[in-house]
From TrEMBL:
Gene behind the chain: R1A1-elementORF2_191
Pfam families: RVT_1
Upper taxonomic lineage: Eukaryota, Metazoa, Ecdysozoa, Arthropoda, Chelicerata
GO cellular component terms given for this protein: DNA polymerase complex
Alphabetical list of InterPro entries matching this protein: DNA/RNA_pol_sf, RNaseH-like_sf, RNaseH_sf, RT_dom
CDD domains linked to this entry: Rnase_HI_RT_non_LTR
Protein name (database record): Reverse transcriptase domain-containing protein
Any Gene Ontology biological process: DNA biosynthetic process
Domain Reverse transcriptase: 1-192
Molecular function terms from GO: nucleic acid binding
Length: 452
């Protein structure tokens, strides 16, 4: 009457659900540790003793297979088990945010240490998550090797202190120089290979900085996407033209525009021709016309600008609006400070947020006659003569201060109201603490926007 429970339970558990050690550090090899884990998880049931039988035999459990043990070893550093004694986890000595038990916030604290260290003037470090890049400048081969080795030693010491291991396969360097002989760079005695191009944050950087390698790689990805699109639509069948146009603008074009502010500001004729060849198959796919149709005609019919012009527009917009870097005068006279900054939400400590009793939607006329309160009135308006914002401070019905400013003609009344409110808050914040001030706003939307 005895049943083998171990195989039954083993078939109902996924490898990703296999927990880690329940009894501390493992002994012996990884295979022995995995075997010990499985034995603790899938215990054999006790032999029944209350049956009316003279003898009881228990068949031996089948041994764990190699695949099961390998699955446990693979998931050892990735899982956690809640036991009656508490949470059992692996003491992770090395690794990176991918598949790590430590979150990105903890990793940022670790990475900030190396970023804040003092580096020579010719050494610069760039980091994104667990990808680090060292940029080193030197006038001669000998000084380049010495400065590079010194920077590597400093970075390696930080890795040793934090018990981090660097992937040997991902260590390489690129040289931006006409130097024929490659400098010998080593990491802990192992030679670092020189490459002609590398991929960082989705952008392929080549040693000539002509960005043709990046365009070619992006073109290969675009061809794969175009082949996949051909499977769901043809010349006279499949999804409609508007859906094809939407797929191109939201998927293909967004993929090609990635990082354009770094490589698409000064395009050469060769780069423009390559981008045009990448765009042409998609124009044919959207329009469904003959393949002999000129590319310029396809762009005109579909209302899609040339790809190099679209990418250059995106690059310039990102440069001036997001990076706040001015463009050359022959392109535009608009400066970054002329553009409104996009709000990113609260960046202050919660203790500094507005309290519920600091904002009221009730009529403030009752406070106007009080002599112990400083009343501040704000207003914003827009007429055919322009846009303006102002506020006035009254104490005992006496004007003690006023402020006004003329805004750009393209500003709205709402922006003028917020500007006046912002200046009034700055003025009130500099008043003595024993004075009570009330700011009266005649625009409910401005009050609600300030309270959020």
């Amino acid at each position: 009457m005895y049943k083998q429970y171990k195989p039954a339970f083993r078939k109902s558990v996924f490898p990703s659900q296999i927990p880690y050690l329940m009894n501390g550090n493992p002994k012996g090899s990884l295979q022995e540790a995995a075997q010990n884990i499985l034995e603790q998880i899938f215990l054999s049931p006790a032999i029944p003793t209350n049956y009316n039988v003279t003898t009881s035999t228990q068949p031996p459990d089948p041994p764990f297979s190699t695949q099961e043990i390998s699955a446990v070893i693979e998931h050892l550093p990735k899982v956690t088990l809640l036991t009656p004694q508490g949470k059992a986890t692996k003491d992770q000595k090395q690794g990176c945010p991918q598949g790590s038990c430590s979150g990105p916030a903890l990793w940022n604290l670790v990475a900030n240490e190396i970023l804040n260290q003092v580096w020579p003037d010719n050494v610069h470090m760039q980091a994104f998550a667990d990808d680090f890049v060292l940029v080193i400048k030197a006038d001669a081969n000998k000084s380049l090797v010495e400065d590079t080795q010194s920077a590597i030693t400093q970075f390696s010491s930080w890795c040793s202190e934090n018990e981090l291991a660097i992937s040997t396969e991902k260590k390489n360097y690129i040289l931006f120089s006409k130097m024929v002989r490659s400098p010998k760079i080593t990491w802990n005695g192992n030679k670092i290979n020189r490459v002609k191009s590398f991929r960082y944050l989705g952008i392929h950087v080549d040693d000539r900085l002509n960005w043709l390698e990046h365009i070619n790689k992006q073109g290969e990805k675009a061809i794969e996407m175009q082949q996949n699109l051909n499977r769901i639509a043809g010349g006279n069948w499949g999804i409609s033209q508007i859906h094809r146009w939407t797929l191109y603008k939201t998927v293909i074009e967004r993929m090609l525009v990635h990082g354009s502010s770094a490589w698409c500001l000064n395009l050469t004729f060769k780069m423009k021709r390559k981008l045009s060849s990448i765009q042409r198959p998609f124009l044919l796919y959207i329009s469904g016309v003959y393949r002999t149709t000129p590319t310029a005609a396809l762009q005109t019919i579909l209302g899609i600008p040339p790809l190099h012009m679209q990418l250059q527009f995106e690059a310039r917009f990102t440069l001036i609006y997001r990076l706040r870097i001015p463009l050359p005068p022959f392109i535009t006279d608009t400066q970054p400070h002329d553009l409104e900054m996009k709000a990113t939400g609260w960046s202050t400590h919660p203790s500094e947020h507005l309290k519920p009793n600091q904002i009221s939607f009730e009529d403030g006329e009752a406070y106007i006659g009080r002599k112990d309160i400083i009343n501040i009135f704000t207003d914003g308006s827009k007429t055919e003569h322009g846009v303006g914002a102002a506020f006035r401070v009254l104490t005992n019905d006496i004007r003690v201060y006023q402020w006004s400013a003329k805004l750009n003609d393209n500003n709205t009344v709402f922006q003028a109201e917020l500007t006046a409110l912002h200046e009034a808050v700055i003025y009130a914040s500099h008043l003595p603490n024993h004075n009570t001030s009330k700011i009266h706003v005649d625009n409910r939307a401005s009050i609600m926007a300030s309270s959020n």
